[in-house]
Structure formats: structure tokens, C-alpha cells
Amino acid sequence: TTKAGTILYLNGVSVSFDGFRAINDLSLVLDKGEMRAIIGPNGAGKTTMMDIITGKTRPDKGEVFFDGNIDLTRHDEPGIANLGIGRKFQKPTVFESHTVEDNIRLSLKGERSVFAALFAKNSVADDRRITEILETVRLDGRRDALAANLSHGQKQWLEIGMLLAQDPKLLLVDEPVAGMTDAETAETARLLKDIAREHSVIVVEHDMHFVRELDVKVTCLHEGSVLAEGPLDHVAADQRVVEVYLGR
Ligand code: ADP
């Protein structure tokens, strides 16, 4: 395998906590522009893998490269965020007392203070970008609503919009549809597919109906390494995957 053309390249990565191998010789390659779904039972190592990619956890062993040849093991967490890796945690964290529009404005990349973002004269370029992001995350009709008044699903979308405002090259999204209605879940699949036209995306998800709607290559983790990889039907038909999910 070559790193050229990849947005993420993990090779032989291991990490232990107090002698317990949470990640065990993990290799995973994501092409530029690819969206990948990561599945696996509780304790499979999904969160720890995301922690390694974002620099929250340092691997004991192995290679972690971003965007070709950037060695992520040489960067700390804020450095990795600056390189263009955005992470959305399961629980939405938005500025509840600000409008939807201002939530995006506050998240636009740059050194502006919160004060400047809210009170400075708006630039036309910023306004255009904000509109574009709000359209992508299906919130252009809720621009002036307070974030606090959005549904749970809409708050998740707003936070995805806030990530987009940072112009990431790679988005890591953790269980985006947990707690969503069926309609919101279906819309989230379409929304992420739109985003994936211009970004590389990793989605960790338990909801297999949602993973099916994403219609992307799936990686199933188990005991800190890759158990199966490929189209969902192929992975779901793998006897080892079945056994792991049934807990046998
Ligand atoms: P998943 O996200 O797939 O549910 P995790 O990455 O959270 O899995 O956990 C993988 C394994 O590593 C689990 O057995 C978990 O208990 C263990 N683990 C994760 N983080 C730590 C930590 N900071 N200290 C000790 N054990 C941990």
C-alpha cells in the first residue's frame, strides 16, 4: 500500500491501557474524498481509534499519516485540529443562546474573537459561506432561530455545520443519528453524502439501517483490529462478524 492519494493511513497501530490492548495492530486506509462507516460491538476500539487520529491518545506502535505524508504522531491535539481534522462527538455542543447563523459565524476559521465575530461588519464572503453551510446542513430555513429551540436532530446538523465552517479535510463523526427520528436519520444520510462529495468522512455508527443508507465501504472493528471490510452486505454476511455481534 502506498500513502499517496490517501487522506488517512494507519499501519500496524497498537495502544495499550494498563497492559490491555485496546488497539491491536490496526491498519486502515482512507482514500481522499472517501466516506467510510466504522462499525463494531462495544469495546471494539472505535473511540480509541478516533482518539488516536485526533491526537488525544498517542499510539505505542505503528504509523498514522494524514493527507499523504503528514505524520500525525508528531503533532498534538490542537495541531492536528489545525491540520484539518474535525471531530464531532456524539452529544451536540452548540451555543444554545445564539442563533443558528451566529453558531456558524462563531465557528468560521480564523483568529477572530467571539466579540468580533458577532459585532464586526459581516463580510460578503462570510455571509456567502454561512448560507452555503446552512443549506448543506438543512438549516437555512432556521437561520434566525435560537440554537436552544432546535430539535435534537437539528442540533446535530448545526454542529456538523460548525465543523464545516472550520474547513476540515477530514471529518470524524461519532454516532450522528443516535436519538434522531426516522425522518431525521434518513435526511442525515443524504446530508452526509452531500458533504462527502467535497470532504473525506469517517462515520462511527451502530444503526445498521443508517449505515445501509450511507451506502459506503464498511470497516468492522473487533478487539482493536479490522475483522472485516467491504460493502455492508459482504461484512454482514461474514460469519466472524455475525458471531461477534451475537456475542458468541
Ligand atoms: P468502542 O468505542 O468501540 O466501544 P473503545 O475504544 O471505547 O471501544 O474501547 C476499547 C477498549 O479499550 C475497551 O475495552 C475499553 O474498556 C478500553 N479503554 C478505552 N479507553 C481506555 C482508557 N482510557 N483506559 C483503560 N481502558 C480503556
UniProtKB/TrEMBL annotation:
Q: Which residues form the ABC transporter domain?
A: 8-248
Q: Quote the InterPro entries the UniProt record gives.
A: AAA+_ATPase (IPR003593), ABC_AA/LPS_Transport (IPR051120), ABC_transporter-like_ATP-bd (IPR003439), ABC_transptr_urea_ATP-bd_UrtD (IPR017781), P-loop_NTPase (IPR027417)
Q: Name one GO molecular function term.
A: ATP binding
- Pfam families (alphabetical): ABC_tran
Record keywords, A-Z: ATP-binding, Nucleotide-binding, Transport
* SUPFAM superfamilies to which the protein is assigned, alphabetical: P-loop containing nucleoside triphosphate hydrolases
Protein name as it appears in the record:
Urea ABC transporter ATP-binding protein UrtD
Q: Which organism is it from?
A: Mesorhizobium liriopis
Per the record, the gene is urtD
